[in-house]
Write a sequence for this structure.
């Protein structure tokens, strides 16, 4: 008769449980083995250090340059001869007056100053703008009457029908006379030559003035040529 085990005594059913416990224990042992640290004992040796005494640096003091002593002041010797004068005694001072005209003495130099009269040189400057402009006798109206009554229209200008203005320039001298007359702009046909002839034959003008004195003044004059 074959003996049968009781269910409690049957270990086959607990095989899996024992296997899991064994694996867990082996894993725990492996983790402990990896995390285990070993420390080596280090022997510390203490050496005695000695402190060396460094001598202090000695600073050698140099002698300062002393300035030379000032030169001795000259001794002032007072004269021991003192003349005591009474209050009533009058001291006379002689003043010598030298005549400037007296040249007998070589010590007195005499300088003669000669005053030369200023000689006014003739003014040669020609002004264009002055305080008082030169004027024809009787004014501008009389000037144009004189021009148009004396100018003869050139025949060549008439035949060609030339009209326009001729510009002249001249200098009114300090005595009012006319000089250096010339044509600035001509229109042709003999008009410029005719206007120049009449201007040169003009009577004397009232001269221009600068600071109250007559001066030379340059004057420009337009002359109109017009056919009627």
């Amino acid at each position: 008769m074959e003996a049968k085990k009781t269910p409690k005594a049957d270990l086959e059913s607990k095989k899996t449980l024992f296997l899991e416990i064994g694996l867990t224990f082996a894993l725990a042992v492996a983790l402990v083995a990896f995390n285990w640290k070993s420390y080596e004992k280090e022997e510390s040796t203490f050496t005695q250090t000695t402190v060396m005494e460094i001598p202090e640096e000695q600073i050698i003091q140099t002698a300062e340059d002393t300035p030379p002593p000032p030169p001795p002041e000259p001794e002032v010797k007072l004269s021991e001869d003192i003349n005591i004068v009474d209050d009533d005694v009058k001291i006379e001072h002689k003043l010598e007056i030298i005549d400037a005209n007296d040249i007998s003495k070589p010590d007195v130099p005499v300088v003669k100053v000669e005053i030369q009269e200023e000689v006014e040189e003739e003014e040669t400057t020609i002004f264009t703008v002055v305080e008082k402009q030169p004027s024809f006798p009787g004014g501008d109206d009389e000037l144009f009457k004189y021009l148009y009554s004396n100018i003869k229209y050139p025949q060549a200008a008439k035949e060609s029908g030339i009209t326009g203005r001729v510009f002249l320039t001249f200098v009114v001298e300090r005595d009012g006379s006319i000089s250096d007359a010339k044509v600035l702009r001509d229109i042709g046909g003999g008009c410029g030559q005719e206007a120049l002839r009449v201007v040169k034959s003009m009577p004397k003008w009232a001269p221009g003035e600068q600071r109250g004195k007559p001066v030379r003044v340059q004057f420009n004059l337009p002359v109109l040529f017009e056919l009627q």
About this structure: The longest strand covers residues 213-225. Residues 127-225 form a domain with the TolA/TonB C-terminal domain fold (CATH 3.30.2420).
